[in-house]
Every structure is written in structure tokens, then in C-alpha cells.
Amino acid sequence: RKPMLSSILLVAAAATASPVVLNRRAMLSVTTAAAVAGRVAPSLAAEPATFAQRFSVSGNISPLPPLGQYSRYEDQLSTPKGSKALSLPVRFDFPQQLLQIGRSLGGIQFVDGSSGLKIYVLRASLPGTSLAETPKKWFGEAIFSPDGQIAREGVEIDAYKVTSAKELEPPAGAAEARRRLALKYTVITPANQRATDRFAFVDAYEVDGIAYLLVASGGATKWEGGEKERCERVADSFFIGRGA
């Protein structure tokens, strides 16, 4: 009988102690989860930057004084589903010798056939952060993604770096958040497979969690000879409106 009594006492003791053990484990789990939650950042995976699609059939181009130097491009951009506005006004100035290409794709792209200066208007969803809080490397990952628009245009990117980023004051009537970034990247030319360096300015606005990006780039060999000034002027003139 004594062994049976001992067994009953052991079971009773285990039953009494068990809730205490479980409570400690539960508290440890809650504490650990809270600590981990405090360290986990939002997902910063970059969505590929693709053409910001035109809402119109074609944009409006008008010359600026003095004649023969710069023109202004004005258009409306389509917004993603769920956006507050159906379309957003866009405009920027560009050197008059640039040609608009790829209109059938619904995007906005200009190129200077002689100097190689290029302009793209792109968009990508921000990674759950505001434009100002998004790490600058995210912009490089989005713009140069293998699934992004620049790669789709047949540009082979060998390396890239976002060299600087700063916030800018938006002009009157523009979207409320604006940022300027500088890039350096290397492309492989298709003809002779040579590595060629390029620089670029990226002007970015945020509307409803979407980054609208103007990329103005030029070759490194002509950058200090005038391409930097031209690309910076294009970026300075970029405007995305708040929409209706």
C-alpha cells in the first residue's frame, strides 16, 4: 500500500507544480516574442521599378525660351488600384535634342542619340516605409532590378551604388514628399562587352505609398563636361502633382 500512496502523492505534487512551470514558460515565450518583435523591421524587399504608365495617349511637348535649348513635357500618369486619384499630373524639362522613344509601351522615356543621355519616369511601391525613411539602397535595388524597366530595355548592369540621398522641399501643388538621390553604375555595352561607367540623378515623389521616380543619366566621360548640369536640370524640373 505504501508504494501506491507514494505514487498518488507524486502525481498530486506534479499536478500542483505543473501550472507554475507552464506559467513560467508562457511568460518566457511572451518576453521573447516581445523582444524579437522589437528587433524585426518591416520588409524592405524592393519591388522592381517599371514605367509609370501614361493615362493619356501621348503627352504634350512645348518649347521653352530661349528657343532651341529645352522643352517641357507634360502629361498625366495612371495610378494603381486603390489610389485616391485616378491620375497624377507630371512634367519635366529636357534638352530639346532628346527623342521620345517606346511610346507604344505606355511609358515615358527620352534619349540623346549622340551623347547617350537618358531619361526614364518609373514607379515602384515603397516597402512599408515613408519616402524619407526608406533606405537609399532600396532605390538602387528597385531601379536596377533584373525585372525592372531598365533591365527590360536591354541594359546589362554590372554594378551600381547609391552615392547620396537628401530630402527636398516640393514646389507648390506637388506631392508632399520629395527626395533626391545620386547614382553611379556600370553597364556592359552589347557591341563589344566593355564596362562603361554612368552617373545619374534620381528625383522621387511619394503618393499613396508609391514612389514616382525620374532617372536622368549620362556617361562618365562627359559628366563633368556638361552632362551633369543637364541631368540635374531635368531632375530639378520634375513635378508630380497631388492629384484630384
How would you describe this structure to a colleague?
- It is a single chain.
- The radius of gyration is 27 Å and the shape is globular.
- β3 and β4 form a beta hairpin.
- Helix content is 27%, strand content 36%.
- Strands 1, 5, 6, 7, 8, 9, 10 and 11 form an 8-stranded antiparallel sheet that branches.
- The longest helix has 38 residues, at 2-39.
- The protein is α+β, with helices and mostly antiparallel strands and 244 residues long.
Fraction of residues in β-strands? 35-45%
Q: Rg to the nearest angstrom?
A: 27 Å
Uncertain stretches: 1-42
Share in helix: 25-40%
What's the short story on this structure?
The chain is of the alpha+beta class. It has four helices and twelve strands. The strands form two sheets. Strands 1, 5, 6, 7, 8, 9, 10 and 11 form an eight-stranded antiparallel β-sheet that branches.
Please render the helix and strand layout as text.
Blueprint: H1 2-39, E1 50-51, E2 60-63, E3 70-78, E4 87-95, E5 99-100, E6 108-111, E7 118-125, H2 136-143, H3 149-152, E8 156-168, E9 177-188, E10 195-207, E11 210-219, H4 223-237, E12 239-240
Antiparallel strand pairs: 1-7, 2-3, 3-4, 4-12, 5-6, 6-7, 7-11, 8-9, 9-10, 10-11
List its salient traits:
four-stranded antiparallel beta sheet, 244 residues, alpha+beta, eight-stranded antiparallel beta sheet
